[in-house]
């Protein structure tokens, strides 16, 4: 089957943050590719509000500095930053022990180490940008199956109760790890169950956060408090990520809001003064899920479909975003060379280039959980010494800061930046 007979070039299963960002990046970087997004939730320009105000219970995502750079490349940051609170300081500590380390943006000549962005606002910004781009939407609809072809794929889509076929060069699975499409296509994920749950809520404290993100390691697991609110004025609201086992989670959910604040105060401490309010509590089980071989001819997994991490270090979406841009770079080079974007050589080269990043990020995140999840006195003393060492040794502190900021030397992939002579060449 030739490219001219294809219905589209790129089919993206999932129009959430990962899928929508990929669609926008391809539209900006490789505009000659036709993009179709298949999303299970209805999408309409009428749903975009003219005046947006986040609610108290709005969910948010931690964006590393490197992710800001990516959104700047896509021309989205100036709008997105309207509801993105800067993280100017990071304080990492071991609850009840002396170990601690501190990072400050000014020490790295940055205005922020990262940001806490409102999820719904990010989605609205992406939708507004995509409405002006050459992107086709099939929604509400879902991808239910795929068949490889000689020059691409045939995707089965269920829409309005009926099944229809769509052909393209490549299918990108960006619908998360819970849809079942990944397993249906034959990918085998590896899962490590941490035996814990993440409780997500927004909280208010008596003292302003001063744009500080707190990472606290406790006997029951890590917790994070991330600054929220105005990008210009330090407020009193923070986004809470609290790790709890099943028993502790059940007991906490039965408490009144006042008692929840007391329980949180006991675990977090008084660095932000009194905890005066806690909002709607959501929770989900914590697992590390990875797929060693996330590509096949004509299909590639991205985002949570490829790797889902513990939220302890806020690395999940940032890792996914770097992977998306690495994939777009391969699409651009393949298109320049007249090679199908779904060819195994193209997708394998993407996986090769992205593998070191995701392996190191997974190891970094998983190691934090295992090291700080140990309560034996010798290990507790060793990690306290490690935190103090990070605070005192400049080289170690710079390494830790680079991990937090998500800056790994990624090259920009906008059209003005040409591939170097060292770029891989593909065989048709």
TrEMBL record:
Top enzyme category: oxidoreductase
Residue ranges annotated for the FAD-binding domain, each copy included: 7-364
Biased composition (Basic and acidic residues): 419-428
Region annotation (Disordered) ranges: 406-428
Keyword presence, Oxidoreductase: yes
GO molecular function: 2-octaprenyl-6-methoxyphenol hydroxylase activity; FAD binding
Gene3D superfamilies recorded: FAD/NAD(P)-binding domain (3.50.50.60)
E.C. no: 1.14.13.-
A family per Pfam: FAD_binding_3
Cofactor: FAD
Protein family membership: Belongs to the UbiH/COQ6 family.
NCBIfam families linked to this entry: PRK05732.1, Ubi-OHases
Protein name listed in UniProt: 2-octaprenyl-6-methoxyphenol hydroxylase
Lineage summary: Bacteria, Pseudomonadati, Pseudomonadota, Gammaproteobacteria, Pseudomonadales
